Each structure stands twice: as structure tokens, then as C-alpha cells.
Amino acid sequence: MYQFFIQPDSIKEEEIWIADPQDVNHIRNVLRMKKGEKVSLCCEAKGKEYICSIEEIESDIVKAAIIDINGESRELPVKITLFQGLPKSDKMEFIIQKAVELGVAEIVPMATKRAVVKLDAKKAAKKVQRWNEIAKSAAKQSKRGLIPEVKPVMSFKEAVEYGKSMDMLLIPYEDAKGIAHSREVVETVKDKKSLGIYIGPEGGFPEEEVSLAMKAGAEPVTLGHRILRTETAGMTLLSILMFMLEED
């Protein structure tokens, strides 16, 4: 069943009107859906998923009858923010896609000291727009209850300041204590409501950035004896957290 996101004003008494031009075009011309086919329509503002049956497909609107309403059941109980150091080439697109699939609530791109990629304001704005489109597409594919937001690019200092409001902060670091200690730290996430994860770019974090994060309350953890690529480290930690936090 295909999923689309809707705004509250799209919801009528017994039906929902899909008016977003991209979604209408996707339903009519790409998926070539027909009357009677079912779709999942998710409203972030209401935290609900509406199972609907398509009634009418017009040139600028799709009308669907509401069959059933589900609560927001696909989100993790802890709001996870991924702070990702800017990687090279198009790795950020891959990271965003997979992070959304794994349940992250928001993503903050970071301009860190060792990041090779340097973006001016204009380029950064275009990248963030593109990244949010990828997040939306991944949220649809994985049937998320919300669309994770990709925030504007922050400096590492700004990202650390932003993370101070969260209940817990983790930073994978090669000089962190052993895996037993990291297991103990990760176990305590279950009692939190919000969590930030700091992932470095290809060159990792220099000691001064790790120190800055630790002063803000970040707990260094290890992900094992092997050195992971930037696109692997975040996915590894998110996978561990998803498995731990997923509710029945």
C-alpha cells in the first residue's frame, strides 16, 4: 500500500482530498492507480494514519474515502537527532535515506573541522532543500508517521549548543572505553525522551571537538574494534537503538 502525507485541512468528514500537485501526478501518471485502490494517508499534525480507498482521480485532486484510522504507531518512543558531519560526494543522501528508515526524528548536517566539503550559504540552502525531499521520500517508503526534518547546516559548535536541550548525547569515538561500558551507556537510553548522536565526517572528530561535546554532556561510546566509515557509523548506532527501543 502506497503512503502519502497530508495536511489537516485535507481531511473532510468521511474522505480526504489529496491536492499536492506532486502526489496527484504520482498517483495518476506514475502509479496509474484506479478507483477502489487503497492508500495510506498520514497526517503529522494529528499523529494519525488514515487507510483510504480512492474514489475520484481528477487532474488536480484525488478524493479518497476513509476506511480506518490508526494512531501514530511507527515512531520510536525516543526522539533521535542525528548530527552528521558533512561527508564527501553524495553520501549525505544515502545517510539521510537510511537514517529515516531506521527511525531518526531529525537530521542536522554539521560543518566540522575535518569535513572536506565546504558549502557557502547558497549551496547549503539548495542541498538542504534536496535533502528534505529525500527525507520525505524515505518517510513515505518506510511508512513513517512523520517526515523527519533536515535542519540547515550548522557549525560543530552550533550543533553542540543545539544538543544541550536533549536528555542524552552520544558520540562514537575510537578512544572511548570498551564495549561493555558502551553497552551500559546505551541501555540507559530507554529512560530518555530525546537523544542526540554526533557522527564525524570521513576524517572523524579531532580531540578538541570531542572535548567540546563531552563538556556539553555527550558520552563517548565505541562501536567495536573496527574503524567504521562515516556512512556506516551512524547506521550502526541507529540500528542498535532501533532494536532496543522498538515497541510491540
**Number of DSSP strand runs:** 12
Question: Helical percent range?
Answer: 25-40%
The major beta sheet can be summarized as: 7 strands, parallel
SSE order, one letter for each helix or strand = EEHEEEEHEHEEHEHEHEH
Q: Work out the helix count.
A: 7
Q: Name the shape in a single word.
A: elongated
Report low-confidence residues grouped into runs of 5 or more: none
- Class inferred from helices and paired strands: alpha/beta
- For the termini, the CA-CA separation is 21 Å
Rounded to an integer, what's the Rg over CA atoms? 20 Å
Give the averaged pLDDT, no decimals.
Answer: 92
Strand % is: 25-35%
Note down, in words, how this protein is organized:
- By secondary structure, the protein is an alpha/beta fold.
- The chain has helices spanning 21-30, 91-101, 121-141, 156-163, 179-187, 207-215, 230-245; strands spanning 2-6, 15-18, 38-43, 48-57, 62-71, 79-85, 106-111, 149-150, 154-155, 168-172, 194-199, 218-221.
- The strands form 2 sheets. Strands 6, 7, 8, 9, 10, 11 and 12 form a 7-stranded parallel sheet that branches.
- Helix 2 runs parallel beside helix 3 (121-141) and helix 2 (91-101) packs parallel to helix 7 (230-245).
- The longest helix has 21 residues, at 121-141.
- The mean pLDDT is 92.
